[in-house]
Every structure is written in C-alpha cells, then in structure tokens.
Amino acid sequence: MDFEALLRDYGYVALLIGTFLEGETILVVAGIAARFGYLELPWVMVTAFLGSLAGDQAAFFVGRRWGKPILHRWAGLRGAVVRVQGLLHRWNTPLILTFRFYYGLRNVIPFALGTSEVSTRRFVALNIIGAVVWAIALAFGGYFLGAALETMLGRVAHVVRWIIVGIVALSMVAWFVKFLVHRRRARRTPPPPENEVFPDDPPPPVA
Fold first, then answer.
1. Least confident of 73-82, 87-96, 112-121, 188-197
2. Closest by Cα among 30, 53, 42 to 132
3. Is 69 helix (H, G, I), strand (E, B) or coil?
4. How far apart are CA 167 and CA 161, in angstroms?
5. How many CB atoms lie under 10 A from the CB of residue 45?
6. Are the C-beta atoms of 133 and 97 separated by less than 8 Å?
7. Phi then psi for 136, rounded to 5 degrees?
8. Alpha carbon distance 172, 190 (integer Å)
9. C-beta pairs of 160-164 under 8 Å, 24+ apart in sequence
10. Over the stretch 153-197, which tens digit does the pLDDT of each residue have?
11. pTM attached to this predicted model
12. Distance between CA 36 and CA 30 in Å, rounded?
C-alpha cells in the first residue's frame, strides 16, 4: 500500500486519535493533505472537532473524579495545575474557550479545570464552542500552508509526501523530548505527605 492510499484509508482514524491525545500538528498535516486532495477539508474539521472534544472532556472528568489522588501521586503536575487555577481566576471564560491554543498547558488545562469550581455543564458548553473554533482555524491553517507549499514547490507528490512525513516525525521527536523532560522533573519532585491538605483546594463545583 503506497503513501497516498494510507492517507486516504487511515488519515481520518489517525486524525481522530491524534486530536484526542493532543492534535495541533496532526490537524495542520491533515489540512495540508486536504489541500492536495488526499482528505476532504470538511471531514477533517469534523473529525478534529470530535477527537479534540472527546479528549478534553475525558481529561476534565478524570480531574473531577480522581484529581486529588493524581496530584498526590504525581507532585510534578501540581505546579502546572496551580498555574492553571491562577489563569482561571483571572480569565475564566476566555481561558476555557481558548485553552487549546496554549502550548505547553493545552493537555493540563482540562484536567485542572476538572479539579476547579467550574461546573460540568458550563465546561461542556464552552468546550464545544472552543473545539469548533480550534478545528476550523487549524484545519484552514494547514490548508493554506499547503497552498503556499504548492505555490513554492509545485504539485509534486513525492515532495508533499516528505513534507508530511517530516512534520510528523519532528512532532513525534518534540513530544518524546517533552515527555522525557516532564518525567525527569517529576522524579526530582518529592511526593507530598499522604496527609497533606492542599491549601488551594477548590470549593465544590457549582451546578
């Protein structure tokens, strides 16, 4: 099976999984692929919306249900959660709508919101709006990047193939390096005592 067939047959599945886990890079790649006819741009947007919405809702519910035990176990995560809570206190609605664009905190924010006073109903409503805007913006961004590449390089299949492979490979390397850095920081951070009371624990979620 050649590269183009793989994109057409499994591109949407890869996009759904990628946007569930994180998604910025794979969505831009999908937008480029749509420009060159391997995928359909409207379906790229729909798939990215569903994957991103599902992933962030899952992170929110994990934070709501198991937030405190997770923070006790992984003390290195606590600093990021405290930072998000500070941003939430200052910005609130704009933060919930735009957190997908916060590089470095994008995966932590929905989990942190689950540990906060933000109600489930409010988060779901704002998360849907944010996911729509994010999916459309980044898909179009990839599409227009593909148009720029086509203008510079021409519609050459093997060139497009290596561009897409290169972007994916670089993003995987960057993710792996980030994972190692976070893992090293977590190992250096001593776990809190079992009976520690977090002074900034949020009040119960409002309805």
1. 188-197
2. 53
3. helix
4. 10
5. 23
6. yes
7. -70, -45
8. 29
9. 160/32, 160/36, 161/3, 161/4, 163/32, 164/7, 164/29, 164/32, 164/33
10. 765 556 666 666 666 666 666 666 665 665 665 555 555 555 444
11. 0.80
12. 10
Q: State both tokens at 91.
A: 């910005």
Q: Six-digit token pair at 98?
A: 């735009």
pLDDT tens, residue by residue, 97-145: 999 998 778 889 999 999 999 999 999 999 999 999 999 999 999 999 8
Q: Look up residue 198 and give its two tokens.
A: 């977090």
Q: Please say whether the beta carbons of 142 and 11 come within 8 A.
A: no
Task: Give residue 25's pLDDT.
Answer: 86
Phi-psi region of 203 (alpha: psi -120 to 50; beta: other; left: phi over 0): beta
Q: Which residue has the tokens 């109903």?
A: 121
Residue with tokens 């919930």: 96
Alpha carbon 147 to its chain centroid, in Å, reads 25
